[in-house]
Write a structure and sequence with these properties.
Length: 308
Amino acid sequence: LILAHFDFRMCCCFGEKNAGFDILYHNMKHGQIATKELAEFVRERAAIEETYSKSMSKLAKIASNGSPLGTFAPMWDVFRVSSDKLALCHLELMRKMNDLIRDINKYNEEQVKIHRKTKEEVIGTLESVQSLQVQNSHLQKAREGYHSKCVELERLRKEGVPQKELEKAELKSKKAAESFAGSIEKFNRAGRDFEQKMSESAQKFQDIEEAHLRQMKLLIKAYSHSIEDTHVQVGQVHEEFKQNVENIGIENLIQKFTDQKGTGKERPGPVGFEEYLSPLVSENSKKSRAKAFRIPGLGKRDKEPDSM
């Protein structure tokens, strides 16, 4: 399959009213509009990502304020970590969008300089277009005048007017023919000048437009890659979240709860019947036990060694 190569010189140089130059020039200026609109689009995307990041941070705060009571409590930490990471992912994308906006604005500044320089370079073509339009108007008038004089001369001949009057009409017709021929020459000369300059300008516009489209596609590619990277990161966060949920089993949640809130493992032993003792009986019992345990003969005399 062979694709035809279309360029501005083939499609936009010529035609009725010679409007090609005006079309190509304004198309170049539209490139600046497209660049500004792309920057605005990316700016809106950055604002969306910033809002989403703040929403995820709010969600993480809600998770951190989850009830610490009950066996489900540890799961809130999984939600908090996941939400925090998602907030960071979208915050990073917002930063990348802002960096891209700076690149777009920088390109727009370069674009303005190129367009200003090009305008100066193609001013001669604009003058050539205007000259051709003027010569075309003169040519149409000269053609109409010549044809009018020819019709008048033919009418006079048919009517058989006097020779003097006929000669006068022939002279006017001859002058009209000369004027028409001169207009044709001027128009053709202007046309050749226009064709050359228009072809050169069309090539300039073509080069500018191709460079513009290449640059715009590079900017869009950077936009696409930034989003793609974020989607990969978000996918990893979701996968990590899913894995963390799977790793925390029901038994783990119950065991963690019992470890934190357990009241002890010792079971109460059996209790026997105890008889009631009054305080007086209890006191006499203590004194009796004290006397029973006294050891006599522990004075100084008992401690001296035998002299024998």
